[in-house]
Design goal:
The complex is a heterodimer of chains A (611) and B (104). With 611 residues, chain A is an all-alpha fold. Among the domains of chain A are: 192 residues, no CATH class; 179 residues, no CATH class; 50 residues, no CATH class. Chain A has 26 helices and 2 strands. Chain A has a two-stranded antiparallel ribbon with strand order 1-2. Chain B is an all-alpha fold. Chain B contains 3 helices and no strands. The chains are: A mainly alpha (611), B mainly alpha (104). At the A-B interface, α26 of A face α1 of B.
Amino acid sequence: MNSIVLIPLLPLLSAAVLILSTGKMPRTVASLMGAGSIGLSALCVALLASSFLADGEIRELTLWTWMSIGDFSPRIAFYIDGLTIVMMSVITGIGFLIHLYSIEFMWDDESLCRYFAYMNLFVAAMLLLVMADNLLLLYLGWEGVGLCSYLLVGFWYRDPDNGAAARKAFIVTRIGDTAMALGLFLLLTELGTLDIQPLMVAANTQWQTGDTLPVLATALLLGGAVGKSAQLPLHTWLPDAMAGPTPVSALIHAATMVTAGVYLIARTYGLFLLAPATLEAVAWIGLATLLIAAFAALAQNDIKRILAYSTISQIGYMFLALGVGAFASGIFHLVTHAFFKALLFLAAGAVIHCLHHEHNIFRMGGLRSRLPVVFASFVIGSAALAALPFTSGFYSKDAILLAAWSLQDIGPWLWAGGLLGALLTGIYSFRLVFIVFFGEARTEPDRQPGWKMAGPLILLCVLSIVGGWIALPLAGVFPAAESHPVNHSVEWISIGVPLLGLLLAYLMFLGGQISVDKLLSAPMARRLVDFWFSGWRFDQLYDLLWVKPYKAIAHWWRNEPVDALYNGIVAASQWGHRRLLILQNGELRWYATIMVLGLVLLLAVMLRNAP
Amino acid sequence: MDGLMVPMEHVLVVAGLLFTCGLFGLMLRRNIIFMLMSLEVMLNSAALAFVTAGAHWAQADGQVMFMLILTVAAAEVAVGLGLVLQIQRRFKTLDMDRANRLRG
């Protein structure tokens, strides 16, 4: 049981040591600690997973009572079932590869020590999030990863733009987190506990399916999930979060943290099953997000922003899966997405690293022969992202689309939307590949990725291909999905659509049979692409709706209008004081005269009133 | 009550006149010495009124009050002259209109 404690403790301790060393640690030691602690942690997870696979027993571990207030005494306790094992494996496994990669990527950075401190802290917080036995501890991890995301997005803090991006990420997710906190309060007051398993039992006994309370509670939880997972309408922070170092984008903004919302919904699926309305909303949010982000990805020219939008889009697929009740498929897609998106981000990082921090895909080109390992990684990653047959993404996305198809009433609509998204995914992912790696070279790479970068890339390539055949130990975690016999034509369509996307991308960006310039020559098309490029102008909309009014109010408030009343009183008394000051002229004779006058006056009054 | 009989009213009118003289002196004179002297005149006018009233009602209280006022006047002069000395030393003048440093 002790090894379970070590899993989050090792990264936490390493983070503490790295922070306390205040950056004075030699590079070698810092990177050894940073990557090594995650490696050891991953080893512990592997041991735990193998023993779990052997006996399939759910492990519960209580360390201590966190606090005790009245009837409410949340514990520091871990609950480890198949879902947790899957998440822990992803976090530590991919986390280790990304840490290893980071050693080379960040080697020249002056703040290597700080980087590894934040990264280790992030892994610890993320592990806490998935291992937590109660929602309060989960919330601690949830906020911890949010903090690390903020710190790492703004890692190169000397550029004010990065700071702005970090603040945006923090504030936008905080909106969702507030909703989630309210949801937790509601659950605690209504059901009296935050321990996840008792909570689900209590909810099932106290609430009927479709009641108002479960709908409200799950809607609030969904708010948190939407913020963290960058779904509509709180998705605007993720493209800007690409300001951080690329391995950070790979770990936090692709593989792990942004999927925390998916994990939250899957973890509390018992509540969501009681609220069909919320579940349907999850599906629609997922669909809308995946389409909007896919269109936006088509128009970007920053390599990382394309990947960011594709991440939003893929998490939309996961939400779609959760919304149609295919929880296991959602988690499956989470895992395969973690593989291939981490691969794509790391490959993009390698391109950026070898090309003097070049981000614009139109200034790349012809890298196929110059960076062969990166090219292979990108092709495999894009194939998996586009869900070409026999890659990992194919199996998971196919499962989601079939689950959507099988749903009553709205199912075919969701399926059609998902299919359109798959087509767009094929186009934008191979547009990226064709533009960056084919054609003529515009920037020459000045170095080749070393083994610390190439190794993780190759491993993730393997995982991106075979990841679809891994059987996740999710049996017993989720209710068994009813399997409907699906028409074979549906399956053929979902296989064919990504290939169609690939073909279209080839014709447009490599073969030249479809001229992009001609397509864009229509004024409407140009405007549409600009619209997509700006991410459907969500930023401008929010600027108009929230940021500007908020700033206006803040500006007005800065003059402290409430204080005007008290300042007025002060001004009035000062004015009176100045008027009365005339009497106090310091002249003795004047005082005496006034006294006499007063005396005469008093005397006159008394005499007048005398009987 | 033989001898010179002066009606009480006359004496009180004299006392009133004396008091008014002292009051106007206090209000109009600028020299602190004259102001103090005016005060003395006012005190004495009050004392005169007491004595007159005591004589009129054949009570000793009036004379007791006269003694008290005399004492008070002496004390007042002692303090007042000390102040005069200080004022002279600080302001090099006895004009009270110029010693108005307590102006607000």
